[in-house]
Amino acid sequence: MNTETLKKEFREIYGDGEVSGYFSPGRVNLIGEHTDYNGGFVFPCALTFGTYCLIRKTNNPYFRFASLNLETKEQISIEALTTPLQKGNWVNYPLGTIAQFVKKGHTFKTGADILVYGNVPGGAGLSSSASLEVATAVAINDQYNFGIGKVDLALMGQKAEHEFAGVNCGIMDQFASAMGKADHAIFLDCDTLDYELVPVKLDGIKIVIGNTNSPHSLDSGKYNERVAQCQAAVETISKYKKITNLAQITYEEFKPLEAKFDNEVAKKRARHVITEIKRTTDAVKELKAGKIETFGQLMNGSHDSLKADYEVTGHELDTMVEEARKIEGVIGSRMTGGGFGGSTVSLVKEETVDNFIDQVGKKYNERTGLTPEFYVAEIGQGGHKIF
Ligand code: GLA
Question: pTM of the prediction?
């Protein structure tokens, strides 16, 4: 949808007058999965699809929310900004984000009219919700001149997810949506929030996203359960080596402690996280050295660990990855994002891309009955004003 159409839609809903527009992207994570809430490293890139947020400040004592994707509309008075709506209402994402400004001590004397439109496929594990939170944060911050930096805006989006959607997520998605840069991946230390933008110059290789279109979506129950299992592992390890998160122990230090775990599940979860953090730092080194084949092997290792130890893949993601790896010209393939359905990310030689999409699509459909979708990713820019 182009910007003129978006403006027209806005005016149809809220009437004539000035309107400003902002955009924040979804993301694809290349490697470093389920490490962010453990203080580890991630390596995501922002995409060129995301969420548009159109906004007009008004003299009303309320905010109005509408979406071009979903029917529900809401009008929320300024006093009610910090109260979540019913679970499942999409307005919780922008509302939860605006609530963070109030919680930081900023005041709204008047409200605004907001229209959002997202083109991140929903439930694809490509952070449609983070892109909505960050688009809202960037828009409100700019319109009300609050002067908050982008990293803090990302943190506010994360809090909205915790408090208004009930998912105890890490910072990766909102950070990538806020801080992304075209043709770069973000090597982020989720403990300190230090980051490095690493150029992704993949000569003759494409990043292909495979959306399993599996009916599972990021299940807050299973996700929060993983977060809790990692905390349990920290407690067990801390009896022998004081740590506050799983990023503070190497695999060499962890290995002899494996026998001390009574809780098999917590042990497996920790093993994934600890090895994944190492794979992520290794992968970034390999990429910088131009060793893309090794990068691909580390991606494969990531998926295998998410499957065996973290148990967040499932039949659809495993099938798609399995079929992808059979294709000649595939450098690496893994699930991306939270898991339990969603998408895979594969590095594919350019000349193989059409065949890859055709073959993996066919085999995946035969084995799961589902019709997947594929996108050749372009790495885009983080949240910004468009008009
Ligand atoms: C979801 C969460 C992120 C991260 C990933 C897994 O996308 O929102 O914070 O934990 O899962 O890496």
Answer: 0.98
Residue 34, ligand 1, Cβ within 6 A = yes
* Unique residue bearing structure tokens 């992704």: 200
Residues 6+ apart with CB under 8 A from 209: 28, 124, 126, 336, 343, 344, 345, 374, 375, 376, 377
Could you give the 3-state DSSP secondary structure of residue 116? strand
Using alpha carbons only, what angle is made at residue 188 by residues 183 and 194, rounded to the nearest 5 degrees?
115
| CATH class of the domain at 3-199 | alpha beta
188 close to ligand 1 (CB < 6 Angstrom): no
Q: Model confidence over 253-287: pLDDT tens digits?
A: 999 999 999 999 999 999 999 999 999 999 999 99
Cα–Cα distance, 93 to 121 (Å, whole number) = 16
Task: Give 39-80 as a DSSP string.
Answer: T-EE-EEEEEEEEEEEEEE-SSSEEEEEESS----EEEEGGG
CB atoms within 10 A of CB 52: 23
d(CA 223, CA 32): 16
Q: Which atom of ligand 1 is nearest to the CA of 32?
A: 12
Q: Tokens representing 281?
A: 């730092």
